[in-house]
Amino acid sequence: MTPVGAWTARVRRPGGESTASFHFTACGHALLVAGGLGAGRWSSLGPGSFLFRVTEPVLDDDAVCVGWVDIEQRANLSGESFTGRGTSRVHDADGRLARAVPVEIHATRVAS
User: Fold this and answer.
1) For 7-45, how does the pLDDT look when each residue is reduced to its tens digit (9 = 90+)?
2) How far apart, in whole angstroms, are the C-alpha atoms of residue 7 and residue 61?
3) What is the 8-class DSSP label of residue 93?
4) N or C: which end of the chain has fewer CB within 10 A?
5) Interatomic CA distance for residues 38 and 93, integer angstroms
6) In this structure, what is the dihedral angle of CA atoms 38, 89, 28, 48, given to the nearest 10 degrees?
């Protein structure tokens, strides 16, 4: 069992919840395609578990990059869903860590 395919997700962090969509490719790419935009990699941690990292740019109102978020999640697959836990690290435009936030993701595979 692998995460390859499209997923819709509920993302919980301190102070709120949002939705997102991810796509994982067979060659190891991880894409955040809704609820933000970003790209990175995923890798297997063994049967039923995987790690993914995605970098999401932070843009101001003029589409100038003012920083980025480094998303890292360890996830466990169970049938057509996965649960991930990890930390999102927010950096400013100079690369300084502004804050680190614990994040939990509950995702469901999108039927193809």
Assistant:
1) 999 999 998 999 999 999 999 999 999 988 999 999 999
2) 28
3) T
4) C
5) 16
6) -130
Structure tokens at 9: 């997700």
Contact 82, 7 (CB under 8 A): yes
Average pLDDT for 58-83: 96
pTM exceeding 0.90: yes
DSSP 8-class letter at 111: P
State the Cα–Cα distance between residues 86 and 101, nearest whole angstrom: 8
Q: Which of 57, 66, 68, 54 is nearest to 9 (CA)?
A: 54
Give how far Cα 42 sits from Cα of 15, 45, 51, Å.
27, 10, 6
Is residue 87 within 8 Å of residue 73, measured between CB atoms? no
Residue written as token pair 């360890």: 74
Strand partners, 28: none
Q: Is 50 in contact with 38 (CB distance < 8 Å)?
A: no
